[in-house]
Design a protein that fits this description.
Length: about 200
């Protein structure tokens, strides 16, 4: 099965069945192109990277500028490589946490404030308790708008402050997949909060 530029244009225009076809054709090559260092193979599975990449493709297909077959293939490969890189970085951070990476423990809502600081626009200024309360409501609304797997990871890791390993077991995924999902969820939250 092959596809052409018209299939790519239709997918970018919102035809999800065309996007599914494109992914079915492109993903075997994407799988083969992903090389996971031996140090991370226990924590990151190629299928997890591919699954997160598919989810991200459905969320971001309209951002594809080069609506050609090579443009689509390059876009999907780069997305998969970025997902793998994010998972590896997250695993490295987990082994050597830095002050900014820790989730703040505290009274109810503290983890939500920490998440808000992590995904908030860095140019925004804090303007008092009322503004923070409004931002927390916006954050909860944005979390509710996330795809299910993104929402589960944010709720469990960021808000409930559960260890990534426990969340991975509950979700039936690798720790690397949970890190990838969390990174993509944070990216999506940033987009939603900017809108």
């Amino acid at each position: 099965m092959q596809f052409d530029a018209q299939d790519v244009r239709c997918a970018v225009a919102g035809d999800q069945s065309r996007l599914e076809t494109l992914l079915r054709v492109a993903l075997p090559a994407v799988r083969q192109s992903l090389s996971i260092d031996a140090r991370f193979r226990r924590s990151i599975d190629v299928e997890d990277v591919v699954q997160v990449t598919c989810l991200e493709a459905f969320l971001r297909i309209r951002s594809l500028d080069n609506c050609t077959v090579p443009g689509f293939l390059q876009w999907i490969r780069r997305m998969a490589e970025n997902n793998l890189t994010d998972a590896i970085r997250a695993l490295d951070r987990q082994k050597r946490p830095q002050a900014g990476d820790r989730i703040t423990q505290g009274p109810a809502g503290q983890s939500a404030r920490t998440l808000l600081l992590a995904v908030a626009d860095p140019r925004a200024t804090a303007g008092g308790q009322a503004e923070l309360a409004d931002e927390l409501v916006r954050l909860r609304t944005a979390i509710a708008a996330l795809p299910v797997s993104y929402r589960q990871v944010v709720e469990q890791v960021d808000l409930a402050e559960r260890p990534v390993g426990d969340v991975a077991v509950d979700m039936g995924r690798s720790e690397g997949a949970v890190h990838m999902l969390r990174s993509r969820a944070h990216d999506r939250l940033q987009e939603l909060l900017r809108d």
